[in-house]
Fold these 2 entries.
Entry 1:
Amino acid sequence: MDRRIPDTATVEAAVALALRAPSARNTQPWCWRIGYSTLHLFADQDRPLPEPGPGERDMLLGCGAALHHVRVAFAALGWGTDVRRLPDPDDPAHLAVVTPHPAGRPTEEMTALAAAIPRRRTDRRPPAAWPVPRDHLDALARAAAREDARLHVVTGAVRGPVPDRQPGTVLTRPPALEAGGEVLVLATANDDRMALLRAGEATSAVLLSATALGLASCPLTGPWGSCEAHPPVLLRVGWAPPGSEPLPPTPRRHLGHVLEPLQAPPKYHHQLDTT
Ligand SMILES: Cc1cc2nc3c(=O)[nH]c(=O)nc-3n(C[C@H](O)[C@H](O)[C@H](O)COP(=O)(O)O)c2cc1C
């Protein structure tokens, strides 16, 4: 056995955790391919690659979140990861090559993030009015910064009138922003494919950190964010209302449908695991 590369069970455990990543409308726009010493992330090969625009943006954000989840999962299992993003200019569906290497005992922080993966939910319920402590918000900003993104608290701005970029009109606020909690904008320096993939990783880092801190969270999309940089994702974090029931997990495709050997032909079956 080659101890420099993880065995199949370890790779499957890491990808199984990565399946829990959030994605817009739960589209799960990813698939994974195992090479000898590498793991490859592709845009889901069962559907056409989305054209540049909102569809591609959501795909890259979701795949970025899955990439961060797999990095966290490997770290918690004792494997560091080298990641090459968008490795093949001739294949835009090929989003990352992950090369695990032995890293020894995981940090407490990585263990906590990995433990947060199965507990994280998109919680759309109005949060309690209790304030989110400043040091919690600072910790979320640090999590974003480690993934090259900036996190801004914009709660005050979005609870007031939200100006449209077009002069003379005002956008309607989505109901989720009327409730308690804090609204955060995750911003990147630009909005090319690489930046969107990294923004997905940063989104995952913020959501898992929020879960680890006991906060409920909900990513939001839409044109109502306003920020001088590129604002790919709006997030709401807050305390779940006292006495609220835990949310059930949303369904995911089976591991066998999204993880295959690198050379295998794509499968054409989508079955949701509703258990
Ligand atoms: C990029 C992105 C955008 C999203 N936008 C919204 C949104 O606008 N409104 C919403 O309620 N959920 C949104 N979500 C959450 C997804 O619907 C959710 O991740 C998916 O249904 C899976 O559920 P889970 O997060 O509880 O596992 C978004 C998620 C991502 C990654």
Note: Residues 151 and 186 are 5 Å apart (CA to CA).
Entry 2:
Amino acid sequence: MERLVEKSILVTGAASGIGRASAIRLAAEGAKILASDVDEAGLAATCESISADGGTASAMICNVADPEQVDACVDAAVQRHGGLDALCNIAGVLHADIASDVSLETWQRMIDINLTGTFLMCQAALPHLVETKGAIVNMASIAGLSGQPFSLAYAASKGGVLALTYTLAVEYGKRGLRINAICPGDITSGMTENFVFPEGADLKLLYRVMSLTGARPPEAVAGVVAMLVSEDGIHINGEYIRVDGGTRA
Ligand SMILES: NC(=O)c1ccc[n+]([C@@H]2O[C@H](COP(=O)([O-])OP(=O)(O)OC[C@H]3O[C@@H](n4cnc5c(N)ncnc54)[C@H](O)[C@@H]3O)[C@@H](O)[C@H]2O)c1
């Protein structure tokens, strides 16, 4: 498919998992990618993979929780690729705890990266997306839709991402922007591979977050990202799509 030829797209969290798969998929559909992350080596691997397939990508180190780095990252996408057509906010972190054990530090980290990071990227990108009548895709989670055990801070941050998505969709819809979210569940990635169960957790509670089909690779989400930023998603705004193998059906 060539739905995104010459489109300039900024992807955060592009060094691993869903962000990397999305950057590769968007580039394969013709987009020029600004791949950003805090992981330099992972970013380089993503960009090499895109270049090897004949695509266009360049890397930009950016901590999404740092306003100055966020502004520089958005500017880089605009300067390098002549504007900005879409922003995919995919960077995120998860730390599992029993609710009563969540430290203020963990709470703050989840909120800073998952929620404030999404806010900062959106705010920096919006003036450019107004010019192109562009699109934003925010990576939320099924944790933001209903109870996910041992994920108090993470779930709160992802619920915030959904609320932010709806608000922006309403404020900017008339100007031709589309702002949507995806709620993945049970996707194999760095996040799920490094998941550590909290000591003393009732593991039976985790059955409710397991998909009916078993885990799927990040490419299962990347195709939905591509649809939402393309003309195929032209009448979708302020929506979330569950990509969770039926977990929350
Ligand atoms: N894997 C799943 O089942 C699942 C389910 C629901 C939601 N998600 C969401 O999908 C997104 C991608 O996660 P993934 O599963 O691919 O995990 P991942 O760990 O493979 O990728 C996350 C990426 O975010 C980057 N990152 C972390 N902190 C950052 C920061 N401060 N600034 C910039 N980049 C930062 C990491 O370096 C990493 O490359 C996350 O927002 C996550 O919450 C994943």
Note: The two ends are 30 Å apart (CA to CA).
